[in-house]
Specification:
- The structure holds 2 protein chains of 2 kinds.
- Chain A is mainly beta.
- Chain A has helices at about 65-70, 140-145, 150-154; strands at about 15-20, 20-25, 30-35, 50-55, 60-65, 80-90, 90-95, 100-105, 110, 125-130, 135-140.
- Chain A contains 3 helices and 11 strands.
- Chain A has a 6-stranded mixed beta sheet, with no helix packed on it. Chain A has a 5-stranded mixed beta sheet with strand order 3-6-7-5-4.
- Chain B is built from 26 helices and 22 strands.
- In chain B, helix 1 (about 5-35) runs antiparallel to helix 4.
- Chain B is globular and about 95 Å long.
- Chain B starts with a helix and ends with a helix.
- Classes of the chains: A mainly beta, B alpha+beta.
- At the A-B interface, strand 4, strand 5 and strand 7 of A face helix 15, strand 21 and strand 22 of B.
């Protein structure tokens, strides 16, 4: 699992991306590749945030609409959307986001603890905040994002 | 998960046991047919012996005790003391079954039927000369080195073994040391081989057995084997797991060196091994003189040693340049001290390769190498197969793109693409062949089953197998075992008559069960046929009526009645027998076969027998599918489940309750399922007359009609797991990738039906089975 400590390891890198007006990031070590949007095949009886499955060189992997997952509304996919392919444990999953922004190093930036905001859905998935050039980037806990069982309960 | 090294060895041992047991069974079957030669008997003996040796290393006492008794009888057969009569072979076959039980008990930690084991052991001993297995039998090194170390001289029952008492090993070692000198002589005649073999303790720890190696060497030609027990410490200093014995083996020069090396293939890392060639006839030391000298208790004499040493020195320094100098090494007619020679031996072994190599090349014509095999982790093969599947899809996509780009058929790009396609197909076939295995491994288990079932039912049965070399994907092979076991049990228990009945019917008392495998149009067809009484249709029908499977007035063809035996909950045996009635009937067989994308049918002729025919795909990695459209989605339905497809007429679809429909097909009503709605693709309106109905056979509810929008066609698709990265989904068996690179879902008919159905009346659906 991508256990990124809150105080930050030296040299640990993050990849940041945008959903709507907000910026998020994940540990770069979990990222396998970044692809353009390809239509996904819907899978019956799936939660709404699972857009379906796509073919990645022979592997069939689910695509998660991260906007929907974080409670930011459903993404209306366009050719400009990208899929960040991440590996968590033995699973490979695609995350649908608006755009990829940057690569950050935790050595240069401090990860702060997420302030306690009661009742916010997104808070479940954010395990820290990074301030950079006046922007705020939320560090996503991938383990929770991919936990579809918990998702159904939520 | 890290594996304890001992566990890993244990695992290997049991894998080897399986192979040895198969070899044993095969050999015994040959003996039963009377087609066994001495090599077969040897291989049978070796198999049991190896199982015993390994068992000893792991302290598997019951296994070792039983195999020891077994081995003793085989040894006597091997040495022609006991004639392998029919009765003896029958006992051996039962013993082989018992040994297999012992092995699996040792592996899985269960117990064996002690009484049966004792009984069979007693039966074996009754054939054994002396009646007792422990009598004159000398324990072999495997046991000694393994668990039960006794410091005692070993006399191997190998040809021309020298009596140890009259023999001084140092003499032989010395002569061995002398032979590279002879090697340097320009000599056309080849000398004999001298092999020094001193196992390390690790050799035995890996469940290898030096006796097997020696026996292998002895089988290459006339071997003279002597033991070197110099390193044997006194009893109190001895490590029970240690290895103290070494051997010197002399073999004729005509034996190819590769064959000698092959004998050490599994142990060469765990022993000191020296293979050297003696000089030619004129130059070689006079062995008889040596032996005579060896018997002479005179102490070491310095002179010959010095002389020899200087000669050796010369050979080392100028093996090619000074052949004359060593033209006639004096045959040492007096023993000398081995220790004096030791330093030279090392030098010689290092320098030796330069001289003997050309001579060997000239004298020993290379034997054709046996087909070599490697063991590969199945995961790696699967990964390769996945990648190749991907390559095929990618190649198809590339071809499509090139076509779309408007390049002509005869352009260079297209020609290259055609080559690529051929290559890709070739790679795919080769990769699939890696996983292909002969069905032999399953067929081999059947003789035992036939013996046991025959014994239990009091029927005389002969099993005839054909096509056991037929290859099919490994996963399919594994899944074949259960259905075949069941069909054979069924054939013997229900199909064959008792010997008395058979004779009354004018047949031979011994029933014949045939088990055959063959490739037929891209599938493997397994047939189990018997020459028994055939299906008793009157009884089958009565039974089906009694069980409420059909109505009393149902009109059925013979074929339909025969196929009733596959109906759930059907069993014709008057009493639930121990043989067939293990809680499952032929319906379970049918279900498991269908789950593999196969079909099973029965053809029966009253009085002449029945034939079960089982057809399966050659691989579970691909599937023959019907590609259909539902809403805007493309889905694949497994072709094997589809009986027919039809366009329903408006009048044929009747509502049943508020949400359900049934479809009238000829005179029966079957549940109609809207596939799109069942999968939650939510179509606005359900209009059956617009689409196509697929009449499918489901395991849970008999026949069911699935509504789809269009049929695109039939295609072979590669099966991809949905669970690897996502999760199992109701109604979806797996996914596949279409030519355009998109994912399509493969329908799980039963999942779909289960999710939808409100248990339809069974009799109605079954009345149409067939």
């Amino acid at each position: 699992m991508t256990e990124l400590s809150l105080d930050g390891r030296d040299g640990s890198e993050l990849i940041s991306f945008r959903i709507g007006e907000q910026e998020f990031c994940v540990d770069i070590m979990a990222v396998r590749e970044i692809r353009g949007w390809t239509p996904a095949t819907p899978v019956p009886h799936s939660p709404r945030f699972v857009r379906g499955v796509i073919n990645l060189r022979g592997a069939v992997l689910p695509v998660i609409d991260l906007a929907d997952r974080l409670g930011l509304g459903t993404a209306v996919e366009t050719a400009r959307h990208v899929i960040i392919v991440v590996q968590i444990g033995s699973r490979i999953v695609g995350l649908l986001v608006d755009a990829v922004c940057d690569i950050l190093s935790t050595a240069d930036h401090t990860v702060q603890k997420t302030p306690d905001l009661a009742g916010d859905h997104m808070q479940n998935f954010v395990k820290g905040l990074i301030a950079i050039d006046g922007r705020m980037i939320s560090l996503i806990d991938l383990g929770l994002v991919l936990d579809t069982h918990q998702a159904e309960a939520a | 998960m890290p594996m304890d090294p001992m566990d890993a060895i244990r695992t290997t041992f049991f894998i080897e046991c399986d192979e040895l047991l198969a070899q044993l069974e095969e050999g015994l079957m040959a003996m039963e047919e009377g087609s066994a030669d001495s090599e077969t008997i040897n291989s049978v003996f070796r198999a049991v012996h190896s199982v015993k040796g390994g068992g000893g290393a792991f302290g598997l006492d019951p296994l070792v005790r039983f195999s020891h008794v077994f081995e003793t009888l085989l040894d006597q057969i091997r040495s022609s003391q006991v004639e392998p009569t029919e009765a003896v072979v029958a006992t051996l076959l039962r013993a082989a079954d018992m040994l297999a039980d012992h092995v699996s008990a040792a592996r899985d930690g269960g117990g064996v039927d002690e009484a049966r084991s004792e009984q069979i052991a007693a039966a074996i001993m009754s054939h054994t000369i002396g009646g007792s297995a422990t009598g004159a039998y000398e324990p072999e090194p495997a046991e000694i080195e393994g668990i039960d170390f006794k410091p005692q001289m070993i006399s191997l029952d190998l040809p021309a073994a020298e009596p140890a008492a009259d023999f001084d090993i140092s003499a032989l070692l010395a002569s061995a040391a002398a032979e590279p000198a002879g090697e340097a002589v320009a000599n056309d005649e080849e000398g004999g081989w001298v092999v020094h073999f001193a196992p390390h303790a690790s050799l035995y720890a890996k469940a290898n057995d030096s006796a097997l190696v020696l026996r292998e060497l002895a089988s290459l030609g006339e071997a003279v084997i002597t033991v070197n027990d110099e390193a044997l410490p006194t009893l109190d200093e001895m490590d029970p797991a240690g290895a103290y014995l070494g051997w010197t083996v002399r073999l004729p020069g005509s034996v190819p060196e590769d064959d000698i090396r092959d004998a050490f293939a599994f142990v060469d890392e765990d022993c000191d091994l020296e293979i050297t060639r003696e000089g030619g006839a004129q130059a070689g030391p006079d062995i008889a003189a040596l032996l005579a000298g060896a018997a002479d208790p005179a102490p070491s004499v310095d002179e010959p040693v010095d002389l020899l040493s200087s000669l050796l020195q010369g050979a080392v320094e100028a093996p090619a340049a000074a052949p004359v100098a060593v033209a006639a090494p004096p045959a040492p007619d007096k023993p000398f001290n081995l220790m004096d020679l030791a330093p030279h031996v090392d030098e010689l072994t290092q320098s030796a390769p330069s001289a003997p190599a050309p001579q060997q090349a000239a004298n020993a014509p290379p034997a054709p190498p046996p087909p070599q095999t490697i063991r590969v982790d199945l995961d790696r093969v699967d990964r390769l197969i996945n990648l190749v599947g991907e390559l095929v899809i990618n190649q198809a996509m590339l071809a499509q793109r090139v076509m779309e780009s408007g390049a002509g058929k005869a352009t260079d790009v297209n020609l290259a693409l055609t080559d690529l396609e051929l290559l890709t197909r070739g790679i795919q076939d080769s990769v699939m062949a890696i996983r292909a295995q002969p069905v032999k491994s399953v067929f081999q288990r059947m003789p035992r089953l036939v013996r046991e079932v025959g014994e239990a039912t009091g029927k005389r049965v002969k099993l005839v197998t054909e096509g056991e070399g037929t290859e099919v994907d490994k996963t399919v092979v594994e899944k074949l075992s259960d259905p075949i076991t069941h069909m054979i049990r069924n054939a013997i228990d229900h199909g064959l008559e008792t010997p008395a009945e058979r004779e009354a019917a004018g047949k031979s008392a011994e029933g014949v069960v045939r088990l055959t495998a063959a490739h037929r149009s891209g599938r493997i067809v397994i047939e189990v046929s018997d020459d028994g009484r055939g299906v008793d249709r009157v009884r089958v029908k009565a039974k089906a009526i009694e069980k409420g499977l059909i109505t009393a007035d149902a009109q059925m063809t013979d074929e339909e009645i025969d196929n009733l035996i596959f109906a759930p909950g059907f069993s014709t045996a008057a009493s639930v027998s121990d043989i067939s009635g293990r809680g499952v009937g032929m319906d379970v067989v049918k279900r498991s076969v269908q789950a593999l994308g196969g079909r099973i049918t029965i053809i029966s002729t009253p009085g002449q027998g029945s034939r079960f025919s089982l057809s399966l795909p050659l691989t579970l990695a691909v599937l023959d599918g019907m590609v259909v459209t539902v809403g805007d989605q493309t889905l694949v339905a497994p072709l094997t489940t589809i009986i027919e497809s039809l366009k329903p007429r408006a009048g044929d679809v009747r509502p049943l309750g508020p949400n359900n429909f049934v479809l009238k097909i000829r005179d029966a009503f079957v549940p109609l399922i809207d596939t799109g709605a069942a999968l939650g693709f939510g179509k606005s309106k359900f209009d059956p007359t617009e689409g196509v109905a697929l009449l499918v056979e489901s395991e849970v509810a008999g026949q069911v009609a699935l509504m789809v929008d269009h049929i695109q066609g039939q295609r072979q698709v590669v099966i991809k797991s949905l669970e690897t990265n996502y999760r199992p989904t109701d109604g979806v068996a797996a996914a596949t990738i279409l030519g355009d690179g998109r994912v399509a879902l493969i329908l799980d008919i039963d999942g779909l039906v289960t999710a939808h159905r409100k248990a339809p009346p069974r009799a109605d659906t079954l009345a149409m089975t067939g």
